[in-house]
């Protein structure tokens, strides 16, 4: 019996051992285990970790609808919109009756301005559940998006009648009434939303924002202060009050309130960062740097402080310090998208855009909807001269986050460079839609209207920009430019002065004033005005650059050089000052110093091609053709399609025994980029000449001679080409023309020998 007993126990253990792995291989058990783990992470707001677990569940069962839906929720909270959309579509395909998923999908479509598709989802919801209030709200909003305001308001009114005690229904009604330009009705709806649900933050905030939009400052302040008193730890109320102060132009009061907030909520990261964030958003980088430097010391373990501080250091050009701080953030979280984007920014500013691109593409592989990564990837491609790819990335960034001003402004710069009024208008309208209280959209739309010969509309937009941001110098400056175009000089001058009163460091306004006085043949007045502004802002590098340019124009080279050197002391990255300093040194005959200046400029700005080009031309003029060729090649490494560099390199190679096939390829590239430029035609012709294709050379040279009849080189080359074709009369004609154009040229003796050969 004893042996039988042990045999029985052994069999039980063996059976259990066999069965346990069988349980772990049960797909239903495995997927549920991953799903439950994902739910726990989601409850802790660890959405990235939760998403991984839901993805694991879907690897076990791709048709696990609940996992698709929860994964979509994670993506929504992380702002990964495309992936959220895909998961919601999959959820509703598997569970058409999942009305929560249908609603989420409809609202996502609505946010993406796909109004008809959002309407289809809303109608499906209300057909399946006519009492679903949120389905009716979605339906009303989709009608509004499609421009059917009357039906939208009627649908919203019916929704309120279904359940008159829901505050969010009144809130949505108020928003629709605002878009329909019914402010009185909207105010009643917002007030009713607050009455029905006094604890609703969105309703109370909407009422305060309504008062602010109506410029009813005391009522708005009362609403926001009431919110702070009721919920002193809620930073949203504090943020709303600060935005109100800024809109009123009460910056000092906003600053004081945020100092108080730091003391009131010393352990709330979002609260104690608000002052530094206000400085950063307002462009007060020195104050932002000092504030975040203090926070970095006081809160050494605050991850967000590290990332923000690194970003400000990057903006101030303190890249070594930024690297140190950002590396600390990456050590704590090696896959953090913001820290990786910071690292990429540092690399781009160090002239290592090629190294930044894989970092940013890695971020986008895991977060394809990261608008900031798209924006900085655009900057990296722009630094490499890949303008089409840069524009594509900026378009993606603006599509994903229409409120990302930096991306919109980058696209605006593209539009202005290309003269693309349609793109500029699209950017302006996006800014007006997402930031109606900002002047940027109005100033850009004004440019569109001026270009389309609508001066009244353009002027109205600029006046609106000034009304919205009376403390900003931008609107005054742009309106001043328009007044200059109208030849209303006194008004223009007054507007530029008003801009500088608002912001003494706003260089564009001073530039316009300086150009105005110079245009009026009053260089002394221009110089006095720049000096006066320097006395107000003594550490502005751009102002010393302006002063130096004025001295250079009046041929006071000593003072010009001193001004440019001072500009570089204040900002070692001021490339314009480097270039201007080199030009002064050349004018003074100090060519060696100019070479050193351009070399320093290249070290500081290794991705900017201007110094390479200037130095190459300088070396070429000194007979250092090998150095010149090396510099042109570096330009082409940075900007492969740069036509002038390709042209100059090709010509130098042809003149100094370089590879003729390579020179021909470069010359063809240059001609493609400069189709109307005679020098590009001449270089390509000279390449054909060296390849023995004299007929092709003649056609190009005839074009070059016609466009630049005073140039001696083009008829010289044309004469030689005709000589090779045994057309002696034409050869003699153009060689004599070349000699007469410049009888003292270095090639005069060669031309005389060629003419002598023709005479024999």
Outline the structure in words.
This protein is mostly helical and 760 residues long. It contains 45 helices and no strands. Helix 30 runs antiparallel to helix 31 and helix 35 (575-587) packs antiparallel against helix 36 (591-604). It is globular. Residues 1-23 have low confidence and may be disordered.
Secondary structure topology:
Elements: H1 2-24, H2 27-43, H3 47-60, H4 65-78, H5 81-94, H6 99-111, H7 115-128, H8 133-145, H9 149-162, H10 167-179, H11 183-196, H12 201-213, H13 217-230, H14 235-247, H15 251-264, H16 269-272, H17 274-281, H18 285-298, H19 303-315, H20 319-332, H21 337-349, H22 353-366, H23 371-383, H24 387-400, H25 405-418, H26 421-434, H27 440-451, H28 455-468, H29 474-485, H30 489-502, H31 507-519, H32 523-536, H33 541-553, H34 557-570, H35 575-587, H36 591-604, H37 609-621, H38 625-638, H39 643-655, H40 660-673, H41 678-691, H42 694-707, H43 713-724, H44 728-741, H45 748-759
List low-pLDDT spans: 1-23
Sheet of most strands? none
Tally the helices: what do you get?
45
Oligomeric state, counting identical vs distinct chains: single chain
Give a quick precis of the structure.
This protein is mostly helical. It is built from 45 helices and no strands. The protein is globular and about 110 Å long.
Question: What tags apply to this protein structure?
Answer:
globular, mainly alpha, disordered N terminus, 80% helix, 45 helices, single chain
